[in-house]
Predict the 3D structure of the following.
Amino acid sequence: MLDSRSPAVRSAGGGDSIAARLDRMPITRMHVVAVVCVGLGLFFDTYEIFLAGTLSTVLRKEFDLSAGSLKAVLASAFLGQFLGAILLGRLADRLGRRRAFLLNLAVYSLFSLVGGLAPNAGLLVASRFLAGMGLGAETALADAYLSDLLPARVRGRLLSVAYTVGFLGVPAAGFLARWLVPLSPFGIAGWRWMFFLGAAGAVGVWALRRILPESPRWLESVGRVEEADAAMSAWEESARRAGRELPDPEPVMSGYSVATQRLPLRTLFAASYARRTVMAWVMNVGSAFGYYGFGTIAPLVLVAKGYSVVGSLTFIALSYIGYPVGSALSLFIIERVERKWVIAGTCVGMAVSGVLFGVAGSPAVIVLWGFAFTLISNVYSNAFHIYLGEVYPTAVRATGVGAAYSISRLTTAALPYILIPALSVGPGFVFAIVAVALAVLVLDVLVLGPRTNGLSVEVTAPSLKGMDHVRR
């Protein structure tokens, strides 16, 4: 039993809880290091997610894949991510964010290397599945860790910076494919170098992440109160030595207790959180169709229109520039407009631009609407990722976010089996399906989602007893 004077059980209104101390911190070097390290890990997550879709036409030719085998190649990494998001997300709430961060990149790096060496489609599918398990929890861990660490007033903006770094991985995959696929450096097929580069880069990020501190919020949530307090005291002292002024404590919510909690998995389905879990899961199903559906199916859509493999890769690479541009654009929006409204508005934009991409007939129009789709989708994506990290309490944040992402990955694994057959009807039909899924997502978030902008995560995701305080 914790003493009533412990930092873990003081009122947030008193301003001396770990949560209040984190929220009043000025932006320091450690914040910047955390954002950059997380962003670099997200780079390889997005690189990997879009890799198979980008190379789909090349892999079909390389291994003489049937339609069924191609679906398995495209689905394998997402199926692995489904399991990885559940298992590593839960592990992050049990053993710590930092340990889970190091484990997931080590697994991804190893099996990405194996994928690059794969002599046949069977080993490629298996290696992509296992690499996907490693990366499955990357976004869940990123959202949970940065939501734990960042002050409420800048949480959305700095998370968007991390994702802007991360989404550079999408055009990187597109342009590297355009450059390497026609080549065979040192006698090795260019597509294999795509996997080798992913493995090598992930090793570098793994080394960088060893300097990251454990989340004080997480330490407090599992009862390691003295460690959390010592970590915060050292961080505050380093800020003072750097000449950064710490503002006076501001109440998070009068009378709200931040007592240590060990919450079981069933918390996600408790009466107080069931609504949020339903909202998060439906949102992730819609995201799979709207966001990942484009990256998975777009190269095949262009080949179906009669463009060559190299030509389609060129159009896709140009379209992919919209991913980091949209992510950077979100920096000016994300703290000014309520998160749920950003999600709803951008979903409408994605639906319209996706349908217009599907029916476009000339290269210039294809690139225009492809760029528009990717730009809008990454304003959406940043709001989506920030929002998910704000709707569960610290004790189950990585578990809740990981479970939601696992639904997204499972849906994405099924997309080739849904959208590739739909492509036989026509590209416009494919994107009409995507538009319907996005419409459901909009209704889901507007009806079930809470408001979160500018609020401490202790307010946006309070304990079970504090749910009556949450704004909608």
